[in-house]
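User: I'm curious whether this sequence folds into something compact or stays loose and floppy. Could you predict its structure so I can see for myself?
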Amino acid sequence: MAPTLDLKEIKTKDFLEVDKGYAPGPYDCCGYKWTNYQEKMTRERMKQPTRPNRRICRKCYSIAKQAETAPIRALPGVLNIIGMVRITKDLGRCQVCNGGKAV
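Assistant: Here's the prediction. I'll summarize afterward.
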């Protein structure tokens, strides 16, 4: 089976991690035989014609995530980094880019 999904088409918010780690293919992006993320059933997805959920590997997911958050940059001086400290507990997502874990 040939890959059917381009990295530019991946919206990371529409994918969720497969339970218990890896699931054997079918793959939809790079051709890797193990998948880590599966497409969610969103309202937009339900309006489309019936098809199996797309699956992607961890590498393609991280590349898509980086591509989504790359254009978002805080202006210099907006965030006071002198008053910040690194944390060890989970606070959720970053409020600036909404892409990654807040650290």
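Summary: The chain is about 15% helix and 10% strand. The first strand starts at residue 15 and ends at 17.
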